[in-house]
Amino acid sequence: MINDVLKDAEGRMKSAIAALEEDLNGIRTGRASPALVEKLQVEYYGTPTPLYQMANISVPEALLIVIKPFDKSTIKDIEKAIRASELGLNPSNDGTIIRLPLPPLTTERRKELVKVVHHRLEEARVAVRNVRRHAIEDLREYEKESLISEDESRSGQESIQKLTDRYIGQIDEIGKRKEQEIMAV
Prior knowledge:
Elements: H1 2-25, E1 41-44, E2 47-50, E3 55-61, E4 64-69, H2 75-84, E5 92-93, E6 98-101, H3 107-144, H4 150-183
Antiparallel strand pairs: 1-2, 3-4, 4-6, 5-6
Helix pairs in contact: 1-3, 1-4, 3-4
């Protein structure tokens, strides 16, 4: 029973880490990456659609993203979505492909991005702590229903705390890496 609670908690903590990593991939570092725009929602026949489902996205140069829509009639919609996004990029098109030149990041912009990263890291820490809280509540409930002893409950809570510490450590590590990527000139 305790092992089930631990496995469930660990699975949910792994999900929080995976969501964080995916989220951070969309935050711009000093070089171009398809992850920057692939999740961008584009209005496609009245339905918001992720850009990666509508176009090939490539990075031919360090500071250039090239978007080649499968359907040429969607170029204007894709450009509009890019301009409306918080990326601050200015797309240009030649009728068949969209070029997204990335301006070099200023020190000020890098600092803003680091703040965004810290905010996302804190959200991930809160998610992991919420998983811990729910797992401990489950163990206390089992103890109250006499399904496990007080010692087993305490031991399970200690295991959950160790798990939480490990995942919070991973979040901090991911944050340090991303911050170094952003601040690297």
